[in-house]
Amino acid sequence: YGKNTIKFLRLHKEGKKQFVKEVEVCAHLRLTSPQEYLEGNNSLVIPTDTIKNIVLVLAKKNGISSLEQFAIDICNHFMTTFCQVAYVKAYVQEVPWQRLHEDGVPHIHSFICVPDGIRFCEAEQCRNGPLIVFAGIKDLKLMKTTQSGFEGFYKNEHTTLPERHDRILCGEFFCKWSYGECKDFDFNCIWKKIRECILEAFAGPPDCGEYSPSYQKTVNCIQMLVLSRVPQVQVIEVVLNNTFYNVVDMKNLGLTNDKEVLVPVETPYGSCACTLGRKTFFEA
């Protein structure tokens, strides 16, 4: 049991310059005894209102240096404060506020919400067990207008899809990775580096791009680049919900439409997912 959608804004000041962190937290506990479920005995139950207040107090006292560290703080507090807690899990996601810039100069106290992917993390721990940390990015929507195709696929009497060697690749990404046991990582730096890997693997070089023969291959390229450049990541899961675009037939309007006007096919949409990890992690 626990408390979901604990939303708050943490404001931090350094002189005249101000910093913001708006987050949503879910904190769940499992107790050493199920007596509240089986017997209606609430003597060990920590009220969810208390859980909410603890999260707010931790934000006030510790600040939020990174989402991961804040999730770790929540786990550590419940494990060290309440002997009846057998398991704790904290989920934290961030509202994507970015500092405003004017003529390249950062504003000291104004921000803009930019929907270019939502950062999130999870931390979980069993009593007498290691603290495990996950992180990720969701609702990251990317598009490239060429350098994507889909050919040579299996065909039977139910196949109506034509082969395409030049199509739009557009999709919404969900990426989640595991650090394994918690260590003293620079979580902010690692998250930014992984996001850069995702963008690079998706788009390819800026002057020529990178051909994608399938959505599945693009997903794998993202995972391989992250694992090759970020040794702290042990396992990475990528889900791509892709949006198809159809070229509008304008022959009846007396026009030739050479992939200049397209309409999105919102439902049904395609999806592919893959989880990739290091051999040493799975052997362990």
UniProtKB/TrEMBL annotation:
5-hydroxyisourate binds at T48, D49, F150, R167, Q216, N242. GO terms for biological process: purine nucleobase catabolic process; urate catabolic process. GO terms for molecular function: urate oxidase activity. It catalyses: urate + O2 + H2O = 5-hydroxyisourate + H2O2. GO terms for cellular component: peroxisome. Its EC number is 1.7.3.3. Urate binds at T48, D49, F150, R167, Q216, N242. Transmembrane segments: none annotated. Keywords: Oxidoreductase, Peroxisome, Purine metabolism. It comes from the Eukaryota. SUPFAM superfamilies: Tetrahydrobiopterin biosynthesis enzymes-like (SSF55620). Pfam families: Uricase. O2 binds at T48, N242. It is found in: Peroxisome. The keyword Membrane does not apply. It is an enzyme of class 1 (oxidoreductase). The keyword Nucleotide-binding does not apply. Belongs to the uricase family. Catalyzes the oxidation of uric acid to 5-hydroxyisourate, which is further processed to form (S)-allantoin. PANTHER family: URICASE. NCBIfam families: urate_oxi. This is Uricase. It comes from Emberiza fucata.
